[in-house]
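FORM 12-B: Structure-to-Sequence Request
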């Protein structure tokens, strides 16, 4: 990765930034996409990503996750159909194979992760009421798996500083739901389901509060919840899977806290230099440029 600093120029009421020549020269098109978030601005070439992949569903899924716009695959139709159960895409026949054109149904990471959270709450709510079936839970799990891939895809296409937080959150919710399904097979007591449901709802309330202290308070109760798990479970497998759900909820709380602190950081120009330091730095740069010019002359 290359990093450079450019001045922001004001021209007739608009702002202009010159892109690095060596980078732009490598672009075939002369059009870029811009995306921004929380003060971050990203610029990338406006291109359509096409990739040829191996003859199996897992390759197609990887192309979707990696942010490709379409994938060409020489594979049996059943392999393509298997991938379509996991990713959003349309398929057309091509020479000796298929073209899979991926569809973006979401453009924001936050709402996708929120949907994953509510899916976990729904699954636990069904289980706590005795209304869950393995088929229903698997259907919820399939959708959550797809949402995790969507978060990864959005971050591959439009990488922003908050991407690591959302990728982690998506992973934790996916893994928590996996353990819910495993726990369901062990037929735990209704009280355990209620404990897990209440813990998940309390995490949501801590996030909604918008106060880092609420997340810290939630994290401080994790030890007590694990002790409650040992009182309500029967057998090692029940304890293992219930503990893992609590662990992943605590992990998610830590990431939400990281994200809140990241957004609370005040960002000032030039890495926080005061005006005097910036003035001094500009003077030093001017002297260096003059010296360099004299040497070239």
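FORM 12-B RESPONSE
SEQUENCE OUT:
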């Amino acid at each position: 990765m290359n990093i450079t600093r450019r001045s922001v120029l004001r021209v007739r009421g608009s702002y202009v930034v010159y892109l690095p020549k060596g980078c732009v020269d490598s672009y075939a098109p002369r059009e870029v996409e811009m995306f921004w978030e929380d003060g971050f601005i990203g610029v990338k070439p406006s291109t359509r990503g096409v990739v040829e992949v191996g003859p199996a569903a897992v390759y197609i899924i990887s192309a979707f996750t990696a942010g490709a716009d379409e994938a060409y695959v020489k594979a049996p139709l059943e392999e393509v159909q298997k991938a379509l159960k996991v990713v959003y895409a349309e398929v057309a026949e091509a020479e000796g194979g298929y073209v899979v054109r991926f569809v973006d149904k979401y453009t924001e990471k936050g709402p996708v992760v929120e949907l994953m959270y509510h899916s976990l709450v729904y699954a636990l709510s069904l289980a706590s009421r005795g209304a869950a079936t393995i088929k229903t839970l698997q259907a919820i799990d399939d959708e959550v798996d797809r949402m995790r891939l969507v978060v990864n895809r959005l971050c591959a296409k439009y990488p922003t500083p908050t991407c690591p937080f959302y990728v982690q959150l998506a992973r934790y919710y996916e893994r928590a739901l996996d353990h819910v399904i495993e726990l369901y097979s062990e037929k735990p007591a209704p009280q355990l389901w209620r404990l897990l449901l209440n813990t998940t709802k309390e995490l949501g309330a801590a996030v909604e509060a918008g106060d880092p202290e609420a997340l810290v308070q939630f994290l401080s109760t994790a030890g007590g919840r694990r002790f409650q798990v040992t009182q309500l479970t029967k057998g090692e497998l029940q304890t293992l899977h219930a503990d893992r759900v609590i662990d992943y909820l605590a992990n998610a709380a830590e990431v939400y806290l990281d994200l809140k602190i990241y957004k609370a950081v005040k960002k000032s120009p030039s890495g926080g230099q005061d005006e005097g330091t910036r003035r001094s730095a500009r003077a030093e740069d001017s002297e260096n440029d003059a010296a360099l010019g004299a040497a070239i002359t």
